[in-house]
Amino acid sequence: MATNNADSLVEIRNVSKLFDLSQSAIDQLLGREAQPVRAVQNVDLTINRGDIMGIAGESGCGKTTLGKLLVKLYEPTEGRIMFDGRDMSELLREDQREFRERVQMIFQDPFESLNPRMTVFQSVVEPLKINDIGDGYQDRRERVVQVLNDVGLAPAEAYLNEFPKELSGGERQRVAIARALVVNPDFIVCDEPVSMLDVSIRAGVLNLMKELQDEYGLTYVFISHDLSLIRYMCDRTAIMYLGSIVEQGPTDDVVNNPKHPYTEALFDAVPEIEPGAQRRRANVTGEVPNPRNPPSGCRFHPRCAKIIPPEDWSGSQDAFRRGCNFKRRVQTDDIPVEEIAEEYAEQRRAVDAVLETGLSLELPDEHQIAGDGRGTVDIDSLDLPRQAENALRSATRDLLEGNEEDAMEQLDRMFNSICERQSPELRQSGDQVTACHLYGSSVANRETIAPDASD
Question: Is 8-234 a CATH 3.30.470.20 domain?
């Protein structure tokens, strides 16, 4: 494989991975197009030699899928992944064999990733056999013994004939690490490598991996939802949400000065260690949307506390957010309009009840206003411009009369945001880049998308 003189080892350019691309039986019956799962969407990322790159986010955000794309367990639906200057999708047979030596993956669960019918020696020597490395049995055995000693399973001879069931969780993961290292790779993707281990032994395994990076000259990608692990291990961090990278930069900057509202919410959710420390909970509402049908524009906007109002909006940002939430709940038929109409015969009272319900948000205590948290909100406590309140009341009357189309037309005119209309491009903010409309001009030059860790 050709060697690139640049510092970058892996370059991901506009990569997407979609699953379930064919029409289901229900899609065919309803005459609609296939609704694929958008596991990874338009990802750009550069990983430099010798870096430890962290990929963090909630469960189901696409981290593991991206990791499998990096080791060619999946092929991208769109985009390109370059490894050492070569497009991974265009590797010839001999190049693919070399790629398999240079790129390895450590999986989350050592209880599942090791074959229970193979001894430690058989598991670790297998990659050498597959890649035809070593001059016979004795040479390979010496290599296995050396690597087992390096990962802390010493004396190695005591472990060679052990089966996985005879080892502790930490020992099993060390065997998995040895299996990845035995072919002397350049690049290792670590998918939640210590999440299945007892807390008491995690630090030892992580420290071991740092030592091995220096000894073997490794480049790591660490995939985790454990933000303390990311902070401890990684030079640079990328934050994923619903298949897309929303922020990346030096780990300390991302942790201490997050730019994207989702990153801020993610770190707000981390418990405070110090007794008596005040914890600020994230001002976020709702659940992660369905990846088969992600929101338009910024994927985080339905949950975001900082959704951007139009320039002529004269009320509070919170009131605008609640109006947008009301519109979304009308779209998804999430307001019990019929039940409220049955309860209140007088239309004016029914309109008030619909608005009190539809404008409420389930928020942590420090972000609530009058009525929040009980399924309703006091409309008088909202800083709503008169024109916006009139539009809400008129749309609600339409809803009560069964005219949802006219209601949505009025709500669309009044509550529209660039956040729901346009997908944000990566934008520079200091040493970080973030996909958020809150920041200035987009990053036009792809070379600046992932600045070197040394910058």
Answer: no
